[in-house]
Amino acid sequence: MLCLRLFKMPIVKTWSCRKIKRNMNDIAVESIPEVSATSIKKTLRNHTSFEEGHTCFIMPCNLCTRKPKVARIYINKTTGMFMCSGCKITGQWQTFETMLGNKRSRAKKAPQDSIEEIEESIKRTLDDVTNNTTFLRLLEEDRLLYTLKKFKLPVITKSAVDTLDVRLNEKETQMFFPLENIESEVVGYRKINSAHSIDETLPTIKCGGILISKPPKHKDTAVLVPNIPDFLALLNAKVNSNIVCLPNGVSNLSQYVLPSLEKYKKLILWLGNETKAWEAARDFARKLGEKRCLIVRPTDAHKLPHLAESQDFKAILSEAQPIWHKSITTFANLRADVYSDLLNIDKVQGVKWKRFPTLNKILKGHRRGELTVITGPTGSGKTTFISEYSLDLAVQGVNTLWGSFEIRNARLAKTMLQQMAGFPLDENLHLFDDLANEFEKLPIYFMTFHGQQAIKVVMEAVEHATYVYDIGHVIIDNVQFMMGMTEEQKHLDRFWRQDAIVQAFRQFATRKNCHVTLVIHPRKEREDEDLTTSSIFGGAKASQEADNVLIIQDRRLTSTKGKKYLQVAKNRYSGDLGVMTLEFNKAALSYQQKTKTKEKKKSDESSTDSSTQDESNVIS
Ligand SMILES: Nc1ncnc2c1ncn2[C@@H]1O[C@H](COP(=O)(O)OP(=O)(O)OP(=O)(O)O)[C@@H](O)[C@H]1O
């Protein structure tokens, strides 16, 4: 309860268990709409004419009463989320259906109170910023130079600054970049700080505003960059395309900004050379429609614009490559991919754990699109370990979705918080707020399922979250909680049912380029024997389909000096196998590997028994 209250967890009504909850800075509860592009089309056809855009269905808005011009409604093809360019109302597909009069309710109007609320919050933000700031372009040249440097922004020409309606507060500590919606109306600001804290979108990302260069270029092309400095560097270079700064950088691409990008036929993604940026480019392209996306390949010759302002930007943009390959392709088309894979071998190997260097040695890193299965005796610490392994990755920006069916989310969050802190929380309650604030910033989402669930329902929630939050790592603890029987499954035995679940997650991981970690209990085995890949419960499917198999082995029961360790029993990426000793720090609930001094290493090597000397034993 303490955790619930202090984590500001929203109270979730129980009308449906099909919810995903973000219990951190964004406390919105997202219900999972049961929609597909086909079902949306079918409903729309019965009511009105519509166009099919790259990411949305677009139709005139007959619902909004105060139209500035011809207002249009944009309906996301994947989630059914709608947004009106006139009154700015936005909501879930079910609400839209209700407004169309398709459901039980006969209401045919958008709820006026929500429209007023949205308009009011936009107006308040715009007034607030206008009243408390002046245009950056009004500064004298010397002062402008000084201010740009203070904000660590590229030094751009006065004529480039003149094209933007950027505003500066009186103290010259905050800058406000205008965000426009699809109708080129300013609907908010992106606020940056001279103290370099995290940028803020005002009033909310739900207004769908993006930062676009001015004046608009007639060409239907836009270059998408992750940061304001990149935006300014390209603006200064007068590239021949529109420039758009993504509101959340490479962290995620919100569905609310997709309508604002509908008008571009060609999008060039220039997101940078980091692993995260590289993955984001592929994910975002899928969301934006791969066929209209080109990518600036991450090579050393293509740094982000603000990192090397002397690069030939125009040449780099003209060499951007399509991300989409036809079903049949040739090596000539793949050549650029192969080259950049080889050039970025370290990044291709995945995100490295900070806490588990031995895992990096064996597995090389955590890669998208793979399936990891972890097993171990009951109570051996599977959840505790996976919690820390996923926390480590989330701290490094891996967007993570947890499905904890066995233990409550609040308890899991408490474990993670303690692992992040490294000390017992109950003895340090005075530090709680600071820690919780830090934890809230992590891209971790929790599914609110508890107890037995049908695989279909879970998969829908996982697919939805992956689209909306750009999830890169899904953890299911544990698979046995999806074995509940539906009518069609009654004839299948438990092994077959589990195989079907593993198969579903395998396909999901590959299709969505998302890493899935499944916790699976072992079969009943003799306690004095080590577990092996064939000890995993179910048929052979789990170990066959998995890219990585991790087993927690507990030798403490069979040997006086025996330890607990994690065995990598399968590793499809490099083939290396090995073990990592798990030394438990109860105060931190952590298995974090200690960095040993040379002397300690020497004395350990001479004293460990054969079963445990394998601290970082890699078998190639
Ligand atoms: N090496 C360890 N030594 C002592 N206690 C541990 C160790 N690892 C985990 N624990 C504690 O043991 C308890 C059970 O751990 P955990 O829930 O992670 O195990 P599990 O394998 O996931 O369990 P289950 O099989 O029930 O799913 C927790 O309270 C955890 O803090």
Kindly describe this structure:
The chain contains 20 helices and 27 strands. It starts with a helix and ends with a strand. The protein has 620 residues and is an alpha/beta fold. It is globular. It has a domain at 353-619: 3-Layer(aba) Sandwich (Rossmann fold). It has an 11-stranded mixed beta sheet, sandwiched between helices. Strands 13-15-14-16-17-18 form a 6-stranded mixed beta sheet, sandwiched between helices. It is 32% helix and 19% strand. Residues 376, 378-384, 406, 564, 584, 589 line the site of adenosine-5'-triphosphate. Adenosine-5'-triphosphate binds at residues 376, 378-384, 406, 564, 584, 589.
Which cofactor or ligand species appear? adenosine-5'-triphosphate
Q: Count every helix, treating DSSP H or I runs of 4 or more residues as helices.
A: 20
Largest sheet: 11 strands, mixed
The count of β-strands is: 27
- N-to-C CA distance: 48 Å
Strand content: 15-25%
What is the CATH top level name of the domain at 353-619? Alpha Beta
Uncertain spans: 1-30, 103-107, 605-615
Provide the CATH topology of the domain at 353-619: Rossmann fold
Structural class: alpha/beta
How confident overall, as mean pLDDT?
82
Radius of gyration: 26 Å
State the helicity in percent bands: 25-40%
**What does the overall shape look like?**
globular
- How is the largest sheet built, in terms of strand order? 2-1-21-20-22-23-19-24-25-26-27
What is the name of the CATH superfamily of the domain at 353-619?
P-loop containing nucleotide triphosphate hydrolases
For the record, the CATH architecture of the domain at 353-619 stands as: 3-Layer(aba) Sandwich
